[in-house]
Amino acid sequence: MASTFNINKPGKHFYDLSAVAGEVAGIQGDVLCCINQGEGPTVLLCAGIHGDEYEPQTVLRHLAETLETEQVIGRLIIIPAINYAAAQSGARVSPADGQNMNRVFPGKADGTPTERLAAFITREIFPATDLLIDAHTGGNDVNVVPMIFGFSSDECVVSDPELTRIMEAWGYRYIQHVTGIDSTICGAALAAGIASVEIEGGGGCLRSEELSTIHDGLLRALAALGVLQPLVEPQPFTGLHLSAGPEAQLVAPQMGVVEHKVNLGDSVTKGDVVALLYPLAGKASAPRELTAPVSGVVLRQARNAYLKEGQLVMNLGVIVG
Ligand SMILES: [Zn+2]
């Protein structure tokens, strides 16, 4: 990749990520698309850091194929599935090294395949990037409401108010304000002075509505930044700004199977019984009542009934502003 990848080449070009990480566990590679036209911001669109989160990968692959150079003002770099070996294996992590890609940034150029792919992004793409959009979904373990997170600092080219405007343009109901983890792609971007947006695009089941929300939201956000011609109608923001710290997480106090008493997107009050945890052995059958640790909106819930001690039951978002 280093010898052929040219981020400054005008027009639309595809490259092969296998030049960075090689054939991984028998999986050959995947594409990176770079569309470059005229003066304007550079945006990196990245999906598939967790291989089993398929909605944004599907949308980004579609955009890489269909967006035309003339529609771009500046530069769009589209990576549909950065963790390609994980994606093609139906797994969250790479079969080659088992590493969570969103905990290896900034990566290592001479490391494992997962670390090499991370290092390629931070070394080859970040220096040219004004805004990172990192797209996730619930994957195999949790269901999530579609939501969007923003990360910026005073050093970023894209200012905090501009980032808020971009997030509100997306059209998601929930905007979450968080502090990043350094070893994530968004954390590494912030350390490099690059603003970023992370989305959780839905439940991991490829529902048509969630796919079109990611597609249209992405096009609105890119148009709001000015890197893409407007291709879909703008939508006024009618959603909520939320914070979701550790105090808003509810985890299983012991092993058991969980019954959810509330749904994603529901508003709950601190102390409400939001889930029941049933025992898996013994004469007693009564479930243990689990209560909301704070008042807020249900953002994530465990997808599977069986939970180990300490596994996430749900997390809540607290309304801010
Ligand atoms: Zn993810």
Query: Which kinds of small molecule does this entry bind, naming each only once?
Result: zinc ion
Number of beta strands: 18
Sheet of most strands = 14 strands, mixed
pLDDT < 50 stretches = none
Structural class: alpha+beta
Terminal Cα span: 45 Å
Order of helices and strands: EHEEHEHHEEEHEHEHEEEEEEEEE
Helix run count: 7
* Shape type: globular
Q: Report the C-alpha radius of gyration, rounded.
A: 20 Å
Strand content: 25-35%
* Mean pLDDT score: 93
Give structural notes.
There is one protein chain. The protein has 321 residues and is of the alpha+beta class. The chain has 7 helices and 18 strands. The protein has helices at residues 18-21, 54-66, 84-87, 113-125, 160-170, 185-191, 208-225, and strands at 11-16, 31-37, 42-47, 74-79, 131-136, 142-144, 147-151, 174-177, 195-200, 240-243, 249-251, 256-260, 267-268, 273-278, 288-291, 296-302, 306-307, 312-319. Strands 1, 2, 3, 4, 5, 6, 7, 8, 9, 10, 11, 13, 16 and 18 form a 14-stranded mixed β-sheet that branches. Helix 2 (54-66) links the parallel strand 3 (42-47) and strand 4 (74-79). Helix 2 (54-66) crosses helix 7. It is globular and about 70 Å long. The chain starts with 10 loop residues before the first strand and ends with a strand.
